[in-house]
Amino acid sequence: MEEVNLVTEALKFMALGMGIVFLFLTVMIFALKAQAALIAKYLPEQPKEELSQWKPQTTNNPDEKDTIAAITAAIIHYNNQKG
């Protein structure tokens, strides 16, 4: 009967498995690079529009001014209660 060295067989399987994983990852890297090149070629990125500076709205409506004053007073009161 033929004697099988289990350590040698385990090392063979380990090398085979690691080789297959390495080959798969190498192929995947090249595929992703090719995909990125194709996307960049056929679907170029549109330039983004500049965002305008945000400006708060001013109001002359007394109801809104009363609301703003009430909210500000509530925030100040809450902050004084905390500390």
What does this molecule look like?
The chain is mainly α. It has a domain at 1-44. Helices cover 70% and strands 0% of the residues. The protein has 2 helices and no strands. It has helices at 6-42, 62-82.
Compact overview of the structure:
With 83 residues, the protein is mostly helical. It is 70% helix and 0% strand.
Order of helices and strands: HH
State the major sheet.
none
Structure classification: mainly alpha
Shape, please? elongated
Strand content: under 5%
Mean pLDDT: 87
Helicity range: 55-70%
Any descriptors?
0% strand, 2 helices, mainly alpha, 83 residues, single chain
What is the topological layout?
Elements: H1 6-42, H2 62-82
